[in-house]
TrEMBL record:
Molecular function, one GO term: ATP binding
Bias type Low complexity, positions: 466-480
Matches recorded under SMART domains: AAA, REC
GO annotation, biological process: phosphorelay signal transduction system; regulation of DNA-templated transcription
Record domain Sigma-54 factor interaction: where: 142-371
Pfam families xref list: AAA_lid_14, HTH_8, Response_reg, Sigma54_activat
Occurrences of domain Response regulatory (ranges): 4-120
Gene3D superfamilies for the chain: 1.10.8.60, 3.40.50.2300, Homeodomain-like (1.10.10.60), P-loop containing nucleotide triphosphate hydrolases (3.40.50.300)
Record's compositionally biased regions (Gly residues): 485-494
Name of the protein in question: Two-component system nitrogen regulation response regulator NtrX
Amino acid sequence: MPHDILIVDDESDIRMAVAGVLEDEGHTCREATDSDSALQAIAERRPNLVVLDIWLEGSRLDGLELLDHVLRDYPTLPVLMISGHGTIETAVAAIKKGAYDFIEKPFKTDRLLLMVDRAVEAARLKQENAELRIRIGAHSELVGESPPISQLRGAISKVAPTGSRVLITGPAGTGKEVLARQIHARSRRAEQPFVVVNCAAMHPDRMELELFGTETGVDGYDSPRKVGMFEQANGGTLLLDEIADMPLETQGKLVRVLQEQTFEHVGGTRRVHVDVRVIATSHRDLQDEIQQHRFREDLYYRLAVVPLRVPSLVERRGDIPLLARFFMDAAARSAGIPPRPLGEDAMAALQAYDWPGNVRQLRNVIDWLLIMAPGEPREAIRADMLPSEISALTPDTLRLEKSPEIMTLPLREAREMFERDYLLAQVTRFGGNVSRTAEFVGMERSALHRKLKSLGVAGGAAAAAAASGGDAGQAAPASAEPGLVHGGARGSAS
Ligand SMILES: Nc1ncnc2c1ncn2[C@@H]1O[C@H](COP(=O)(O)OP(=O)(O)OP(=O)(O)O)[C@@H](O)[C@H]1O
C-alpha cells in the first residue's frame, strides 16, 4: 500500500537516500529542510507519515520541538525519528513524547521499510479502534435476502471498486449508513479512513470548520489547528450523512471541492489537495428539496453519480425474521448472555407490525426483549411478551377485534371472513411467500393460491409479495386491505 511520506532533514544526501528507498517501494515522498517548510507541507496536505531528523541545523525549531508541534496539531499523524550517533538518549525522549519509534543512522534499507510500514499500520489501527469505540454497537453487515436487498448487494459489488460518488436515499433507520460502510469496505480504499459527517446533528455555523478545518487555531494563533473531515478522510471515504441539512452556502463550497478535489482551510488562502471519495445520504426527497430551493441542483448531480434507494422495512417484511435473529444473536454476544429464541407467534407479530422507525426500531425492540422479556434465560419469547403496540397484531387478538362483526353474519360468510383474515395474516407473516405459507397452514400451494384468489386477495397482493421477498407474481396481502393484518395499532408505535 503506497503512502504519502514527508521527509524532514537538513542534510540533502540523507533526504535523497531515504526518498530513494521509499520511492522504489512505490511511496510518494515530499522533502522539507527545516521546521517551517515541514509545517507548511503538512498544512498543505496531511501525509501518512513524517520521517524526522532529531537535529535540524539552521531551523527555527529543532527536531524535538517540531515533534511537539506536529503531535499537538496532528495527534494521529505518526512520526518516525532519525537519530545520529550519540543521540540515542534524545531519540528515547522523542518516543516518550509520542514519536512512533526511531531509526539510527546509518540504517539498512529493509529496516527503514519495515519501520515505515509498521508506523503507518499502527496509526491506522489506532484510528480504526477509536472509530470503533465511538460507533460501538453499530453493525456494518447487510442482513437480508429480499429482492430489494439482493439488488442493493449486487449494486454495491459493482459500484464499490469504481470510486464513483454514491447518493443513498431512503427512510430513517433503513440502513443507509450500513450500505455506505459496505461500499467503503469493498473498495480499494478499505484500508484508509471512513469518516462520517452528520450534517443534521452539526450546528450550521460550525459545518465549514468541521469539513475544511482551519489554518491556525480556531480561537487564536496558539491553539491547535483544526484538521477538517476532508483531510481526515484523505485517501479514504467521507460520508455526508443527511446532506439535505447542509446550509446552501456550504453546499456551494462543496460543489467546488467535488469538482477540483481541493479546498481552502477556513481563514486560509492556500489550496489543500485531497483524494476523497464522497458518499451522501438523505431521508428527504432531494428532488423536492431542489424544487423548494433548499438544495442545489448542481450538487445533486455531482453526488448522485450512482443513486441507490433503500426501501422501508415494510416493503421487505420477508427480511424481518433474519434481522430479528441477527440482532438477537448480536445483543446476546455483547451482553454475554445466551440469546432468547423468538416463538412463532412473536415472529408473526413482528412481521405484521409496520415499523415506522424501520430496522433501527426493530433492533431496539430486540435489544429490549433480550433484557426485559419475562421468563427463563433460554425460554422462547412469546407474542404477549412484546411491546403492546406490536403484540396487538397477533392473529388471536385481531380475530377477537373482528368478532362483533362476525356475530352478525351467517356461518358461511363468517367463515369466509375469518379465512380471509387468517390467510392474509399468514401470508404477511411469511413475507408474501405463498409456498412457505402453504406449507405452514397445511395446504397445497396451488390450493392456497386458488383460495386466496377466490377470497379476492390475489390482485394487489402480487406486488406486495414481490416487494416483500415472496414468490413474485403470487398472492400476498393487498396493502389496502383493511383486515386483520395491520389491526388497530397502525401508527401507534413510538
Ligand atoms: N440490512 C441491515 N442489516 C443489518 N443491520 C442493519 C441493516 N439495516 C440497518 N441496520 C441497523 O439498523 C440501524 C440503523 O441503520 P443505519 O444507521 O445504517 O440507518 P440510516 O438509514 O443511515 O438511518 P438514519 O437515516 O437515521 O441515519 C443500525 O444499527 C444498523 O446497524
